[in-house]
Design brief:
The structure is a single chain. This protein is mostly helical. It contains 6 helices and no strands.
């Protein structure tokens, strides 16, 4: 192995270690800890689980109808109504707020990582083509 190859390998290992450390630090953030607790609360809440199942049924019904070209406004309204009902459950409302807080924190961290790179992969993640 040449000196250049060894140096590149050590640099890659160092970057991977930094990434691992960043992930571990993110896992310790209060926003992440709150997210885990809120997710568990939703998973344990029977009413939330029932409403999630009802919303998923309405969503599947709408998506299936849409794929067949048979979706109606009533199908869409039913799905939206189930989603609104789900989002009004206190444990779900709290989860969604906490999830949003975590997303904002992660977005800010991502901007700090991208700042020195002069590359923004965020546009690519959305599936957009920037040709």
């Amino acid at each position: 192995m040449s000196v250049d190859t060894e140096a590149a390998s050590e640099s890659e290992q160092s970057i991977e270690e930094l990434a691992q450390s960043l992930g571990e630090a993110i896992a310790e953030l209060p926003e992440y800890q709150s997210f885990i607790e809120a997710r568990e609360a939703v998973e344990q809440d029977e009413d939330a689980q029932k409403q999630i199942a009802e919303f998923e049924r309405a969503r599947r019904k709408y998506m299936d109808a849409r794929e067949r070209g048979a979706a109606t406004r009533d199908d869409l309204r039913e799905m939206q109504k189930k989603q609104e009902e789900l989002h009004e459950i206190p444990v779900m409302k709290e989860f969604l707020q906490i999830e949003n807080d975590l997303e904002l924190r992660l977005k800010a961290l991502n901007e700090h990582v991208n700042e020195p790179l002069d590359i923004d992969f965020g546009d690519k993640a959305s599936g957009c083509c920037n040709d």
